[in-house]
Write a structure and sequence with these properties.
By secondary structure, this protein is an alpha+beta fold. The chain contains five helices and five strands. The chain has a five-stranded antiparallel sheet, covered by helices on one side. The protein starts with a strand and ends with a strand.
């Protein structure tokens, strides 16, 4: 089953909608609650990264009998230093985003902790591509 969602940067009122919809869909399948929780956390964190840091992006979901693969592609400033961005507590979020309760620098580390595979690439000034996979 394939699904695609469009994510608008800066739209915190809609942020999390796509990941919540995917969570409710996968709960209908015979997937353990622990896996559903891990997927929900990873997708929410990734979606909110697009909302907080990019102009716009997409989330493409490929749900298979034995895994889920999700690719986020955004248009935005990109990540200057991926190694640094993977450190807990490191954030480039604006003060405005932090005042809303986001931008604590836990997004990418939380994604990595909750998926089985993670591939992250970025072109500064262009955007970021994140692929995550969770095995069932």
């Amino acid at each position: 089953m394939k699904m695609q969602y469009f994510i608008k940067g800066g739209d915190f009122s809609e942020g999390g909608r796509a990941s919540t919809e995917v969570k409710s869909i996968i709960k209908q399948f015979n997937i353990s609650p622990d896996k559903v929780r891990r997927i929900a956390i990873a997708l929410y964190e990734a979606e909110m990264n697009v909302v907080a840091h990019a102009y716009k992006g997409t989330m493409e979901v490929d749900l298979r009998p034995d895994y889920i693969n999700v690719v986020f592609v955004d248009e935005g400033p990109g990540i200057e230093d991926i190694e640094k961005a993977m450190q807990e507590g490191f954030s480039t979020a604006s003060e405005e985003v932090r005042q809303m309760g986001f931008g604590a620098g836990m997004g990418l580390p939380n994604i990595k902790k909750n998926c089985d595979e993670m591939l992250l690439s970025s072109s500064p000034g262009t955007g970021t591509r994140l692929e995550i996979k969770v095995l069932f």
